[in-house]
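DM from R.C. (forwarded with permission)

"hey, sorry to bug you on a friday — could you get me a structure for this? deadline for the figure draft is monday and I only need the backbone to look sensible"
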Amino acid sequence: MQHIKNQSLVSFMVSNKEQAIQVTNPATGEVLGYAPISSEQAILDGIEQANVAQKAWAALPAKSRASMLNRWYQLLIENKEDLGRLMTLEQGKPLAEAQGEVLYGASFIEWFAEEAKRTYGETIPAPSGDKRLVTIKQPVGVACAITPWNFPIAMITRKAAPALAAGCSFIVKPAELTPLSAFAVAELAYQAGIPRQVLQVVLGESAPLVGGIFTSHPLIRKLSFTGSTQVGSVLMQQSAHDIKRTSMELGGNAPFIVFEDADIDAAVVGAMASKFRNAGQTCVCANRFYVHSKVYDEFVTKFDAAVQQLKVGNGLEEGVNIGPVISAAAKQNIQSLIDRAIEQGAQPVSELQRLDGLFMQPVVLKGVTHDMDIVSQEIFGPVAPVIAFNDDEQLIEMANDTIYGLASYFYSQNIHRVWKIAEALEYGMVGINEGMISTEVAPFGGVKQSGIGREGAKQGIDEYLDVKYLCFGGN
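My reply, with the result:
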C-alpha cells in the first residue's frame, strides 16, 4: 500500500482473491488490495459473539468505555495522514479533504466518549405519596450498521461511537467500494482496547445477503443505515418483522436559495463549499439553486467564475479540489442528467469539457426551470443547476416540491424573512447564510423520505438506548 507508514492499518488485507473484494483507485484504476469477505456462517457467529460480548461491555462503568473511546479518538488523530491517504486512494477525494474527514470522523468519537457519562435517567413526581417513579436508560443490545462509500470513515464513527458509548456492541458492513478505511479505523479501535467482538467489520458475498442477515437475526436489536431511500425502505420493511429499531439517513435534494437582499459574495462562497465538496457526492450538498431574478445574473457570473478555478485531478496531486466520481455508472448517470437538462433548454455557463476516466469537469447550468428532470433527481456529482424565482411564496413551494427533506440552505439579511423561510422549509436541517452545517454537536437527520432518527449531538446516543420506567410502591 502506497506511503502508508502505519502498516497495521492495512494488515487485514488478504492475498486469496477468491475470498476477498478487490479495491481499486478510482483516479487511476490501480488495484489497491483485497479486503476479506466473511462467509454467511462467519457473520452469524460474529453476531453470537457480539451478543455475549455486549453484556460485559455494558457492565463496564461508563467512564471505562469513555476512556477507550478517547484513546480511539487520539489514535485517529495521530494517524490522520495515513488514514487520509488511504481514503484518497480508495475513494478519490482530495487529500486535504480526506484528512478533514478523518478529523470530522474522530470528532464523533470524542463527543460520544463524553456523552457516555451523561445517559441520565430522571425522577417523576408520583400521583400518590406511596409511590416513587424513576426512569433509567439501558443499551438496546447488539446494533448493526450499513454505511456508504462517500464518507467511509465519518459514516462509521458517527454510528459506532454512540453505540459503543451507550453500551451496545456494534457490527458494521462498509461499502464494497471503500472497505479499507473501515478496517483501518477498526484496527485503531482494537489498539485502543475495544474488544474485537464488541466492534466488528464484515463484508459478505453480497450486500443483500448481509442486509438480510442484519434485518432478520433476532439478536440484532438496532439497524442504522445511510444510503438511498429505495434501499432504506427495503431494510425498514425487512426490519419490521421483529420490530427492530431503525435509524435511516437517506436521499436528499437540497435547495440552495439566494434572495435579492443576500450578500452575493458570501452566497458564492457558501455555494462552493456546499456543492463541490467530495465532487458533489454528498447527501447534504446543494442539489438545485434558486436565485432571485434581481440578482440572478450577478450570482451566476460570480459562481461560475469561482467554479472555473477548481482543479480536477488525482486527489494526491497538489492543488486538486475535485477528485474522480466513484464509478463509471455514476459518471454516466451524472452526464445523462446534464445532457437531458441541455435538451430541455438549460445552458452551460462555460464551455463543457468531457474528461477521461472517472473525472468530470464541474459545471454551472443556467436557464434551468423547476420542471426539468435534473431538478427532481439527486445529482450526486459536480453539477449546479440554477433556477430563477420572483417571490417568496413561489420559492417555498418549489423548494418543498420533493419527496426528500434532509438539508436546505438560504441566504438573506432580512431577519423577518429568515425566520419565515427557516420555519417554512420542510427539511431536517437548514443552513442560514452558511453552506457547511455538519458538526458532531448538532443533530443530523432529515424528514419525509430522507429518513428517521438523528445522529450526532445528545440525540445521537438516545438512538442506542431504551428508556425503562421503574415504579416503586409501598413507600
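R.C.: lifesaver. The chain has a mean pLDDT of 96.
me: no worries. Residues 254-401+407-439 form a domain with the Aldehyde Dehydrogenase; Chain A, domain 2 fold (CATH 3.40.309.10).
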